[in-house]
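Mods, move this if it's the wrong board.
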Amino acid sequence: MNTVNGLDRDNLNFNLGGLHQKILQWGASLAGYGDVRPGLAKEFKHIPTAISLAIRHPPAESSIIRQNGVTAYTNQFPEVDNKLIVIQKKIVTYLRMQGWRALAIPPDTAQEDLRFIARLFPLFQHKTAATCAGLGWIGKSGLLINSRYGPRLSWATVLTDALLPVSEQPYLKGNCGSCRKCVDICPSGAIKDEEWTRQSTTQVKIDVSRCARQLEKNYQALGRYICGLCILACPLGKRVTEESSVPKTKEG
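Not the wrong board. Structure tokens:
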């Protein structure tokens, strides 16, 4: 018998067939599978497939803050992150009930977790999962960009050893082209106008110190370390986030 963890592999594959649709039904705007073995930390080698999922942000206007002469956009949405966590738990339960290993890496703003396993979360980036799953690329701003929603998404990941149909078209480079919207709007001049490539993932494309100084200035005016003008400026997804359309399940 062809088995995994003592269970019949063919039966497991059959049961996994409806997972993608379930994730969307549970509330995700996007979902995809990616092979993340290259560069995967040793702690995760036994779970080499990433399920990348995202939920789009609320309409931008409701998230713009104007105060003391400063305009900023908050991309922190606790209610969205909480929904992602609920979906992750359902995915993990679904997979484990079928004999697969699964580990949820929560949204970045929800990683204040006191469990020992939480120490491993910083070893894996949601950007890696999404680019490998073909759901988006890393823009000049350093943000994860989806062709439909732009940077207006919150992301989460589930790592697993399940035999899922991983994307055959992972993103290996950026797709921003000649667009400079985020470069031009950045008040600190932190964005370098350089395209991301898979080979240059470890190279910082923004001036972190300039970005940090701007956040400090905004804190003095707004009482919060936020800016987000690069999100507002990105032309991708501006109209879609104002619509109540059916989420796309694939890029392109």
